[in-house]
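Teaching note: in complex prediction, the entire set of molecules is handled at once rather than each chain in isolation. The prompt given to students was simply: 'Predict the structure of this complex.' The entities are:
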Amino acid sequence: MCLKYTGRKVLILGGSSEIGLAAAKVLSGRGLEVFSTYYANQARLKAGAAKARPVYLDLGDIRTFSEVKAGSYDYLVDLAHTDRESLVLSAADSGIEEYFRTNVINRTILLKELGRKMLLRRFGRLVYVSSAALNLPSEGQGWYVSSKSAVESVYRQLGLELVKKGITTVCLRYSCLDGGRGKRFLEKPALPPIKPEEAAGQIAYFLSDGSRGINAVSITIDQGLPSYKRKSGGGRE
Amino acid sequence: MTLEKLKVIFEEVLDIDPGTVGEETYVIRDLNAESIDLLELAVHVNEKFRINADDQAMFLRQLRSHTGEARIRGRYPHLREGREKEIMLDLEGGPVLKVSDLVDYIDHSLAAGR
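The expected output is the structure of the full assembly:
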């Protein structure tokens, strides 16, 4: 498929994840200038996506946002999310606060900065990689799905408010990914799991000019999740 | 100087002839600026004047929660002298924000920065 891109610079939040590495490779291969954030895994980022420029960012600490905020990007691929699996009532109070501050509040602060820069150029496309767990959560995923749901709402609202100024968003609810934390929830899927490279190709499409009519919505890519999802992923804290 | 730069921003954001913009022009009543336009305007003001504008103050948002000349002066200290009285008399006519208010906000911020 021939994909066209009006913009040039793409920022991948969570760039050292398996999908992040694959996305950096695919997008740089399509001529985009890729910047990938890392938190604990710079070495992996360098090894996996030589063409991506590493940018340090700890979503849990807004003091680390300065390097990302200094740049301006045409595209954003948002893969960053911290892990928390526990029954809703068993989570520590401080943990709940930290989890939502990191994944919802701090991310929104960052989006505000990035979005305002995009406004200056009247161009931007943001892809948020969400989870099909929002459609069908398992026990222990309460904090994960509620925070993802909040973030999806922010992205959809951004797409709604900014489309007049050339900025659009889409949320991709993945499941059956052969990578990341989703693995432990899957059993006997009907089709082979979606490889990070395949997901990267899909992300490349959803960034491209041809997909921009798909705005302010969430799209599920799950191979028919209800047929194979386990009841629980183990419920570890 | 500030007004001239603002006119360029208005031209970019609202796609209007800068010649139609003067200090007495109402931003919302006359130029039909919407919320998203004001946001874009603020981003350009920040960029062009190198200030960190508070959208609430710059666009006189929540003005109706601060009615009364003394309260307006306290909340929006950048307004030129006498403007609070004018605003009170003008409230029934719709959104009171004028281009001159933006000019004053920017000049006030620049002076504070210095």
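Point out the following to students. Chain A has one domain: 9-227. The CA atoms of residues 108 and 197 of chain A lie 28 Å apart.
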